[in-house]
Amino acid sequence: MGVRTLAVWCPDWPVTAAGHGRDEAVAVLAKGRVVACSEAARAEGVAPGLRRRQAESRCSGLAVVDDDPARDARAFEPVVASVEAAAPTVEILTPGLCALPARGPARYYGSEPAAVTWITEAVERTTGPGGCRVGIAEGSWAASQAARRAVIVEPGSGPTERFLARLPVDVLDDPDLTDHFRRLGLRLLGDVAALPAASVLERFGPSGARAHRLASGRDERPHLPRVPPEDLAVSMGFDPPADRLDTVLFAARQLAAELAVHLDERVLGCTVLAIEAETAGGRMLVRRWRHEDGLTPQALSERVRWQVEAWLLRGGEDGAGVPGGLARLRLIPELVHPERGRQLGFWGASAADELVAGALVRMQGMLGAEAVATATLVGGRTPSARVRVTPWGATPPEGECVSTGTGRGGKAGVRGPRAPERPAWPGRIPPPSPATVYAEPPGVALLDGAGAPVTVDVRGHPSGAPAILRAAGMAPADVGAWAGPWPADERWWDPAARCRRVRMQVLTLGGEAHLLAFDGDRWLLEATYD
Amino acid sequence: MANDRLLPAVPGLAGLLPDGGLRRGSTIAVSGGVEGGGGTSLALAVAAGPSGAGSWCAAIGAPPLGLVAASEMGIALERFPLIRAGGRAWVRTVAAALEAFDVIMAWPVRGVSIEEARRLTALGRERGAVLVTCGPGWPERTDLRLEAVRSEWIGLERGHGRLRARRIEVAVGGRGAASVERRTALWLPSPEGRIEAAPETGFIAPAVIDAGLDAAFAGISDDDTVAVTAG
């Protein structure tokens, strides 16, 4: 369960940012479709997702503006500044929505309702009355939902779960997925949360898994130390201080790209990015941007650009601008997490690797996650014990795999035909290894010349020379040559898993070579050298 | 990754192939003969060349493969996903793999129609992928056909020794340059564990193995013993 979080949400922010009041009929369009609209337009039937013409036909006199996230972010800066004046450590989730840990303000103002009142008043001084809603819940996603409804959810994980369970699936903001859910009769988040996580992942892929996580109130990354172990921050100084927007933006883009490379190298995703600027006058400006699913390189660069524009064009926290320009710009990834979901695309993976990863994920969607697997070699004696198969995308067994690098295209040739052998396992079946290894070894009959079953005594001596091999689905074959039995007392330290077996290589006169194992009373066909 | 027309084959196999490598966009059928099988090993050997050189290979609908053997032959297991697909999903899975992989080893399911086979072949040609069909069940003629006609293990005796090396006789046929069927012998693997061309001088008869094996594998020390005895 996440940290108790207070969220501030400004309704219809793109409309407000475009300079329109809530009583004007306004729609914001991106790529010909409505992405946001004002209260007045909504009353006439305008809704996100409509085409321009549909929206205009529903609401005569509808004013239309183009979507511009940078404008939204710039306009949001004074709002964030006003929240920060009331309570520090604000993180911007998206223009129009910001969040902060609730504990500090609740203590400072005496109680959570008091904190909500104070912060609402502080923000309304900037946005005008009714310009914002504040809510509190566990975790930033739940809190943002609480803010939309202006409620304070009781502390503890239970109330937040119950609060989320009653919300319609539409709040997931993923129209395709929501549509699927509705067709399956899943109308509330509670219905989604009640399903097993694995089934949701298998049926709906990563977006379904995200929905399930959110619906169960588990949106938060596990909270790691706020200062990452390695200094990942990147910075750039301007001498003389830069006051031209294009100069700073150029530097900002470079810094963002540099940071993205650093993160990629360390297989980290960035959840909270702090953008820090030092003005020529020595004042420090800091803004934090948060993104639960990790900021992609593109999103990272976008947020840096928005923030720099917000400072330079809107003029800083108190409207005084940035006199003299910026002397230094720093990007600090404050909260990072190991990337597990996207294991590809690091170490400069080639386009082929990306393509393959896409195809494998698609196949997992068709066939189920377990049907697509990769193998790693581990220690062991028998051909089957030396292989560990893990579903694609799952973390391979730790410490045992030597090379799991899916993307080391450049080093591919280094690993020659004969990989360096792992530590010796006494009693291991020597190479060459069999090309077919049965997952469930079928039972076979091994008879001696007199037609009696061959057995092996406790000292490892066979009762007779094998002469005939009989297996289900195969004609009885005469044994031309054999070797063994080689004893192996496996896992003798563990009474439950102990397995005393002897193995024998058998070559039939037809030329087929098999590896047989005797487990005390019968022979099993472990592998075939075909 | 090299985007050339040819994917490299392991040295022993290169001599067998008309182009000296695996031609992108082509289809290859690999099968095992009656005597001693060898088809699975041969298929793994075909994939080993590209895989060792950095290509991604997929195994679709494969029997339980010996992955230690695959690794010994030179397949990079981290670029060798195993995909379980049966029934009607098989064709779609192979099609999805052809879009992304360099080499697709596919064990056909029952009832692949000629139209489906042609469609997959065309897709492979368009994407520059090599489709290796393993075992029976592929209804269409392929550009190249490799069949393990006979395989013979040496090193195993009546009660001692162990499997050390295998000579395998491969029949190569197909279209174009390969239309005249040839037979060649291959060590799969050789006593040193490599895949290489074997001398053409027929197969060692079992009797000869029995007599000559100790000399061949126990090698010098036996000769030394003989020399000391003689001296």
Which residue ranges of chain B are poorly predicted, with pLDDT under 50 across at least 5 consecutive positions? 203-231
Q: Tell me the quaternary state.
A: heterodimer
Strand line-up across the major sheet of chain A: 7-1-6-5-10-9-11-8
Number of β-strand runs of chain A: 20
Approximate strand percentage of chain B: 25-35%
Q: How many strands in all of chain B?
A: 11
Percent range for β-strand residues of chain A: 25-35%
User: How big is the Rg of chain B?
Assistant: 19 Å
- Average pLDDT rating of chain B: 82
The proportion of residues forming helix of chain B, as a percent range, comes to 25-40%
Ends apart, CA distance between termini of chain B: 60 Å
State the major sheet of chain A: 8 strands, mixed
Q: Helical proportion of chain A?
A: 25-40%
Number of helices of chain B: 7
- Sheet with the most strands: spatial strand order of chain B: 5-4-6-7-3-8-9-10-11
Judged by helices, strands and strand pairing, the structural class of chain B is alpha/beta
What is the string of helix and strand elements of chain B?
Answer: EHEEHEHEHEHEEEEEHH
Major beta sheet summary of chain B: 9 strands, mixed
Any idea what the shape of chain A is?
elongated
Number of helices of chain A: 14
> Uncertain regions of chain A: pLDDT < 50 for 5+ in a row?
222-227, 316-320, 341-349, 396-422
Describe this entry's structure for a reader.
The complex is a heterodimer of chains A (530) and B (231). Chain A has 530 residues and is of the alpha+beta class. Chain A contains 14 helices and 20 strands. Chain A has an eight-stranded mixed sheet, with helices on both faces. In chain A, strands 15-16-17-18-19-20 form a six-stranded antiparallel β-barrel. A three-stranded mixed sheet of chain A has the order 3-2-4. In chain A, helix 4 crosses helix 13, helix 5 crosses helix 6 and helix 12 packs antiparallel against helix 13. The longest helix of chain A has 21 residues. Chain B has a nine-stranded mixed sheet, with helices on both faces. Chain B has a two-stranded antiparallel sheet with strand order 1-2. The longest helix of chain B is centred in the first third of the chain and has 14 residues. The radius of gyration of chain B is 19 Å and the shape is globular. In chain B, 51% of the residues are buried. The C terminus of chain B is likely disordered. Chains A and B meet through helix 14, strand 12, strand 14 and strand 17 of A and strand 3, helix 2, helix 3, strand 5 and helix 4 of B. Strand 12 of chain A pairs antiparallel with strand 5 of chain B, so a sheet runs across the interface.
